[in-house]
Amino acid sequence: MAIKYSKLDAKDYAREHMRGIWAAALNPFNEDLSLNEAGLRANIRHWVDELDIKGLFIAGKQGEFFSMSLDERKRNFEIAVEECDGKAGVIVSVSDQNFDTVLDLAKHAQDCGADYIVVHAPVLSFVHDRGEVLYQYYKALCDRVDIGIAMWSHPDSGYVMLPEECARIAELPNIVAIKYSVPREMYVRLTHMVGDKIQVSTSSEDEWLDNIEELGWQLYLCSSPPYHLQTRHDQRMNEYTRLAFEGKFAEARKVRDSLNPVREAMAKTKPADKPQAFGKYWQELLGQVGGRVRPPMLELTEDEKAVIRIGFETCGLKL
């Protein structure tokens, strides 16, 4: 299955199609820790058909890619492409410390019909001047595939990419976006530096509305709030996003702020050492498929579940 654009058209294609709310998928695992394919398909159908999520970020850190085999990651890509079926965009993480693995996954993503790939900045042990290393890393991948590539910078790498480093990489033909998990002043600076060459985004839902209004952002890329803060009958994140895109920022802010009890309930009840397990249990309370987590991630205790359940039941989400 060919990608929908040429390498030289990747930026234009992404500018037109990589818009709105995209969500990072948690992967449901069965009791035996195998991938629950039926559960994943059911979640995707709910997210796309009922929550109107515009795109999915597949096999990322939320999805515990670090615990999956290469074959499982590839299967993860295929399921998402099949279930989205052109109704929502698909960006898949091909991140790995081994470049051959990144390239293998990137080619599979391209061949199976994913829209874009996302590549985390590598861990650079003992490297203190990173600019040229990072540029050559992304260039080597750009030279070998045609699919649109999103950079991904997060402190998990042991550093964050500087706006100047990102702006240089953004000149490469099939670099189309960045998920930039950094302090706001850094992504503001990058946004002004790159203009509309690439989509700049961050995973913080708390900052999404402000970034639409103040920076003209068109893309939320992405984390779990699009399906944690919303239900079939309660889509206030979609609503405030629509209002903001229409320039109705005062109205949008009222809708956004009405979700504060939900955000507070999640923040107060989430154990600091169990993010994926919390997310999956919250999904189960919403009627989605959650399931187990894989090592090294930890499962919730029954006492932790009880606290979360009380928070969920009193947060005001309409099921």
Structure explained in plain terms:
The chain has 319 residues and is α/β, with parallel strands linked by helices. The protein has one domain (7-248): Aldolase class I (TIM Barrel). It is 46% helix and 12% strand. The protein has helices at 10-17, 37-50, 70-84, 99-112, 131-144, 163-169, 184-194, 208-215, 225-228, 236-245, 249-257, 260-269, 275-285, 302-313, and strands spanning 20-24, 55-58, 89-93, 116-120, 148-153, 175-180, 199-201, 219-223. The chain has an eight-stranded parallel β-sheet. Helix 2 links the parallel strand 1 and strand 2. Helix 5 (131-144) runs parallel beside helix 6 (163-169). The chain is globular, with a radius of gyration of 19 Å. The protein starts with 9 loop residues before the first helix and ends in a 6-residue tail after the last helix. The model has no long low-confidence stretch (mean pLDDT 98).
